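#lab-general

N.A. 3:47 PM
ok so I finally got the sequence cleaned up, no stray characters, all 213 residues accounted for. can someone with queue access submit it? mine expired

B.Y. 3:52 PM
send it over

N.A. 3:53 PM
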Amino acid sequence: MKSILSILLLSFSLLTNAQYDPSAKQHLDKLSNKLKSYKTFKSVFVYKMKGPTGLDESYQGTVTVSGNNKFHLTTNSGIEVICDGENMCNYNEEDEEVMLYEFDESEDGIMTPNKVAEMYKEGFRYIMGTSEDPTTHLVELIPDKRDTEAVVKIKIYIKKSDGMIKKWEIHERTGNKYAVDVKSFTPNVAVTDKQFMCVPSNFPAGVEFNDLR
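B.Y. 4:20 PM
back already:
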């Protein structure tokens, strides 16, 4: 998730002297606390991937989240991911198969809004950036070990109106950039336990179900 931006000498100097910007922390704390106050939420988003080698893809998706680790993600590209906090299964419509794994949060590539809003608390410095969108604040996260990490910067756009996340971008050292644009956000939606269960009945009949735990 991500892209390399050229950094002016002045900007680099400002970063060095404002590694933990109080204004940035205020916006991040507000966002984090808001998301943690919801037991569940549902978000519709557009995910875009671009890179210097010709990478240019996008898809629309919907993610329903319950608590910290339960989520159900569907996309218009035929990919579906379900996690109950202990197990995670990936469904690929093209391959007509479901792969069931033991969930490992440290290796999980799914970036839901609540996870993005918590990232700043460990391993990152944060500063205020300049948003081209006048309706949002821009907070930039810089990895503490940016010289060796694949991710060199994360941009989080927060709506001025309600302090909610509107968009985030992850920039990689390779030049790849991954952006998630939140189109709608509905807090405290009704959910059922079954929505987050890795069971065959949650997928189309006849698909191959592979248990790799």
